[in-house]
Design brief:
This protein is of the alpha/beta class. It contains 15 helices and 15 strands.
Length: 399
């Protein structure tokens, strides 16, 4: 199938062809035709599947320039992804003006550019700031896109997103793209979309084997254990819950002879981009990050993912471990589990049907995998929680 067969104009087809894009991906094949007809779309498709072109072509082909009016708004979870999406528009743009807005930089250049802008691509926080300052008016928005919607909800942007959506005309076309469609995504679509067409795209990536395991340890043992494990591996991504933790963990790892750096929201944009590039270029082999800082980063060759801290939501764990075992290569995802984490770990064990193995590290020496513990009796409803390990450790669901 060709872009012409999907109903894409010759000018856009030629622009894509000049950049070597001649055949639409599955998500583009299914999304572009109804998008061109003005349908609201609820699309489940993995990162890297060609989603930007899938929602970008209907916008570019149907949008007409009106001086002083923002006609399309694309909301992204991170500034890195916002910049990437804006850059993708260069591949098929038809003279429309695209502006990227995000925090960490001055407001003034963005304010000055807005009156001449057709399409705004930005993060929720900066979009709201510009709205509250009266610089960004959404009264004429005909196209609204939520890109990587699941990540934005995981990051706690739901209230910001609803405020933004409520400020746009009810007649707009809404295109919601997400790697997974959870009940929260479905609720958002029911509230703000008009009979959306549901499109699900199966993963096209060849996945390698993902081994998942966890170590039970005390909080004061985590750094030492992590350092011992990291000395055995090539390229690892370590997740922490807070900005302070990323800096602390990276510094402690460096003291132990490991080339590690942190990336978090306190860093300037240029510093973050330079750090990520250095990691991609293999100038150091361990990147310590928060979930927020890691959103939108696409780094190949991750052999190990470590959960130094557990996330609050099981879906966030899924996104974390999905960064390894890609492109046919095997990978490992290891969690350092303390007693306070058991309640968060229970739903993760349920999600993976208890396939996450318990590991032990004898005398800081050879890593040894041990059989799962026998099922623990459930505490009575309302009674005290049993201590000593995750509730479903080793237990199998009764079918």
């Amino acid at each position: 199938m060709s872009f012409e067969e999907l109903g894409v104009k010759d000018e856009i087809v030629d622009n894509l062809a000049e950049r070597g894009i001649t055949h639409p991906t599955p998500v583009q094949q299914q999304s572009i035709p109804p998008g061109l007809k003005g349908k609201d779309l609820l699309v489940e498709s993995e990162t890297g599947s060609g989603k930007t072109i899938a929602f970008g072509i209907p916008i570019v082909q149907r949008l007409t320039h009106e001086e002083g009016k923002v006609r399309a708004l694309i909301i992204c979870p991170t500034r890195e992804l916002a910049k990437q999406v804006a850059g993708e528009f260069d591949k098929f743009n038809a003279g429309l003006r695209v502006l990227t807005v995000y925090g960490g930089v001055s407001y003034e250049p963005q304010k000055e550019a807005l009156p001449k802008t057709d399409i705004v691509v930005g993060t929720p926080g900066r979009i709201l700031d510009l709205m509250e300052q009266g610089a960004l008016v959404l009264d004429h928005v005909d196209f609204l896109v939520l890109d990587e919607a699941d990540r934005m909800l995981d990051m706690g942007f739901i209230d910001d997103i609803e405020r933004i959506m409520a400020a746009t005309p009810a007649s707009r076309q809404t295109l919601l793209f997400s790697a997974t469609i959870s009940y929260r995504i479905q609720h958002l679509s029911e509230k703000y979309m008009r009979e959306p067409l549901l499109i699900r795209i199966e993963s096209q990536e060849v996945r390698g084997h993902l081994f998942q395991g966890y170590y039970v340890c005390n909080p004061w043992q985590k750094i030492g254990l992590l350092a011992k494990l990291l000395k055995r591996q090539d390229r690892a991504l370590v997740f922490c819950r807070t900005i302070v933790a990323t800096d602390h963990v990276a510094a402690e790892l460096r003291k132990r002879g490991i080339k590690a750096k942190s990336v978090n929201g306190n860093m300037g944009q240029a510093t973050r981009e330079r750090t990520v590039k250095d990691f991609q270029d293999k100038k150091f082999n361990v990147l310590v990050a928060t979930d927020v800082a890691a959103r939108g980063l696409h780094i190949d060759g991750i052999t190990h993912v470590y959960n130094y801290d557990l996330p609050d939501e099981p879906e966030t764990y899924v996104h974390r471990v999905g960064r390894t075992a890609r492109q046919g290569a095997d990978g490992e995802a290891i969690t350092l589990l303390c007693e306070d984490d058991y309640r968060k770990f229970d739903p993760i064990m349920d999600l993976y049907d208890d396939e996450i193995e318990k590991l032990t590290y004898h005398a800081w020496g050879q890593i040894e995998r041990i059989p799962p513990s026998p099922p623990r009796p459930r505490a009575q409803r309302g009674g005290p929680r049993r201590r000593g390990g995750p509730r479903r450790l080793g237990a199998r669901r009764r079918r």
